[in-house]
Amino acid sequence: MLELFLAELKRSWIEFTRYPVDAIAGIFITISVFYGLFLSARYIAGPNLQFGDRLDAIVVGYVLWTLVVFIVANITAVLQVEIQTGTLEQVILTPFGISRVFLARAIASLTINIIVITGILLLILLLTGRQLYFPPALILPLLTVLLGAYGLAFIMASLALLFKRIQQLLGLTQFALLFLLAVPSETWSGTLWIVRLLLPMTMGAGILRDLMARNLSLNFVEISLAFLNGLGYLVLGLIVFRRAEVEAKRRGILGGY
Question: Rounded to the nearest 5 degrees, what angle is found at the Cα of 37, between the Cα atoms of 32 and 39?
Fold first, then answer.
């Protein structure tokens, strides 16, 4: 598995360096969209606007949304490219299996894009003049968000495997992800708190906002529940993807487009 990861990491790095204009354009667009929203809000509210820690929380949610959108779209996009180029059968026939190959490929791409996302975060903080906290404990809620993101990514990839073209659905999914990651679910109570337990990534995102924007301490009960949520969605995604692979083989549409 390590050999597979290193091979995919090399492949991701070659693709990233071979098309630098695309990477730079993506970074510029991501930062420009947020900064445009920031300037618009400040203009509407007037010179007496006081964001407090709310803007910090919004920054955390926006950067998380950017990361998760990449994860969910990346696996699906790579799968569709394999289908269009007719190389999906070669991936399936490898000793590792299609699930391991795409998981290793996604983690390898994430390794590179974590650096890009960190750069985007630092530039946004520089432009807005805000300051976030970076305690070592933030690794734990970030991991729960990544687990849930990969679970959703494999569910979307399952749809791509069966229906081939799902670009419009991916676009709608981005708005749903913005709700999950940007809404301050950590303030919910009562029935909404139970809903928060069931929604993907919301608990991990809320814990990250508490740690990075509000400088609160880590709640071990919440982080444990967030881990269970993330693992549950990852297992669900892998099971659905495996079922979709079997169904695609049964229908004979694995390599069709």
Answer: 95
**Taking the model in full, what pTM does it have?**
0.83
User: Is residue 1 exposed (0-12), middle (13-18) or buried (19+ Cβ within 10 Å)?
Assistant: exposed
List the domain range (segments joined by +) for residue 201.
2-251
Please state the rounded mean pLDDT for residues 77-84. 74
Number of domains in the chain: 1
140 part of a folded domain: yes
For residue 95, being part of any structural domain is answered with: yes
The CA distance from 17 to 3, in Å, is: 21
pLDDT tens, position by position, 214-226: 888 888 888 999 9
Asked if residue 151 belongs to a domain, the reply is yes
24-78 residue pLDDT tens: 887 788 788 777 777 766 666 555 555 556 777 888 888 888 888 888 887 777 7
State the burial class of residue 186 (Cβ atoms within 10 Å of its Cβ: 0-12, 13-18, 19+): buried
| Residue 256, domain member (yes or no) | no
